[in-house]
Write the structure tokens for this entry.
Amino acid sequence: MRARRIGAAAATGLALVAARDLVQKKHALLRNFPLVGHARYVLETIGPELRQYIVTSNDEERPFSRDQRSWIYASAKGENNYFGFGTDNDVEHMQGHAYVKQRTFAGVLPDLSDPQAAVPSAKVLGGPRGRAKAFRPASVVNISAMSFGSLSGAAVTALNKGAAMAGTMQNTGEGGMSPYHLNGGDLVLQIGTSYFGCRNEDGTFNLDKLKSMVAGAPVKAIEIKLSQGAKPGLGGMLPGVKVTDEIAGIRAIPARKDCASPARHTAFHDVNSMLDFVELLAMETGLPVGIKSAVGEMDFWEELATLMGRGERGVDFVTVDGGEGGTGAAPLVFADSVSLPFRMGFSRVYGVFAERGLTDDITFIGSGKLGLPENAVVAFALGVDMINVGREAMLSIGCIQAQKCHTDKCPTGIATQHPWLARGIDVPSKGIRAAMYLRTLRRELLKVSGAVGVPHPSLITPTDIDILNGDYDARSLASVYGYKDGWGSLGPELAHEITELLTP
């Protein structure tokens, strides 16, 4: 009797849905195929998950393939991250694939038996310009800019704890510093166009607020964000659904309203005034100051290098973000078609400074899918001194690439402000996983460096890597990106110094 009632209620419910489908005018599919048409929307909703686990091959899916995700997950858990039975790539026909050329003989190399071995930067950040708080970063791998707001407080906390355990730095992102960033890890404070945490009521920059914020926090450097790979030339957007009372308080903005950042800064308006701003921040805080940008037109970089060539003013570091980067939401045209991919963009920027002999005086940082060993090695060969990892760090703490970051419905609680979803993150265990991933990536870089016969990834050169150029043909990385002799390599003094540090 009870089952009959349940069946009747279900049938009534389905009949009501069918009736609604027949009279609604928004969806032609449902109007023509009531009830059955809903299956299409269900399949569309879970399409990424179906492709991720059932349909695609190991190296097919984007932005991260199954093999890439598997390596990150295994590394973060401290499990076996090897792959058996050889590669499943068509190695002779993969256009654009990079191949590292190992050396038969090598000098003294670092001991690879220590999983926590340090891999410091080959350059002292802020040293060439004599910043009061110049320092040598303890890790060539650090956590990229991801704001509290874009990520949940639990996710930011786990990443910060992981950074502390691994001895890396975490970039705050343009959302400013939050309590979740203060769990032991060193910070790079990012200043975006809205100056969150150091702004006046009208949204302009406030130096006193910046100095107050920096004075009581483990901030090691300041990064001025000009643009980012996800949406270059477009201001950031935090949907109102993510603007909680807590975030509103941290950012000094209205709660539950879309937070749209301007596309460009108001504290400066050209390269000349930007350098004045850089020097002001460095003088008032003592910290190294740099810029982050995706790469589009090159006039900006030419003028910056020309002005820095005079030796009076300059940035301490340059973070180049590839157009393939992005941890949050972006319009499709910006995600797909605005700004250059990392390798092309970085090589052009590096060349501008190399032509003027300035590369040893600047720390180059790369971001944009560089949290995978093969991509990172190519970046170091092109002249990068450190890399920032964003989505890969998210994967290490449980991201499943559901691609729902822009909806506030991230199923793993990482890219959401929904309390019930965020509670799924066990901060202590996820912090350990983040640390394990960061350490493993550093160790992989040392392994590849050793195969090339050098003790540090910054000593890998563009001639140590070939890029496949069609069937059975390859060109050196230097040739592909137009590098001249010596480009992508450290100067003799820096090379000797880092070699001595790692092989005393």
Q: What stands out?
A: Residues 427-452 form the longest helix (26 residues).
